[in-house]
Fold:
Amino acid sequence: MKMRTTGALAAAGLVWGLMLSPAQAQTQAQTKCVSAKTDWSVCVWDTPKECWGVSVPKESVNTRGGKPAQVRRGDTMLFVTFRPGSGAKGEVSFTPGYAYAKGAQVTMEIGSDKFTLFTDGEWAWPANASDDAALLAAMKRGSQATLVGSSARGTDTRDSFSLQGFTAAMQEAETRCK
Structure:
């Protein structure tokens, strides 16, 4: 598995209104969130050209030892990125707002379909482009995506994302990055 790096990841703070340091101001100047499609936003990064859809969970449940747990998490976001310069045609990535346990895998459930995502630090991705394509097809058919993972501190998380507006957001992001 190769680690994916995207402008979407660097611009996450812009998308969700975080305070930017002077070093991040340049990223803000390059990034534009251009539309919202129900529960998904579409953003673009000019140089190099990159477009993505992004959403936040409608519900997050944190447990430890099977019991509800109060935890502090950073921003939790689900992305799909298009990069014409590198041939990326819909790469799925997820950040839960915490570091994953070493070697952890994340389960993504869409209806009766289940997918495995691999982790590195605070990020999770499908293993390859074929898995991305299968996930995107399921997301377009589904109404909700639920991601289940475990933090390095032993907290189990379940984040549920609405897929309302997903197909329209992906069509716009892909069109903007042709």
About this structure: Residues 5-27 have pLDDT under 50 and may be disordered.
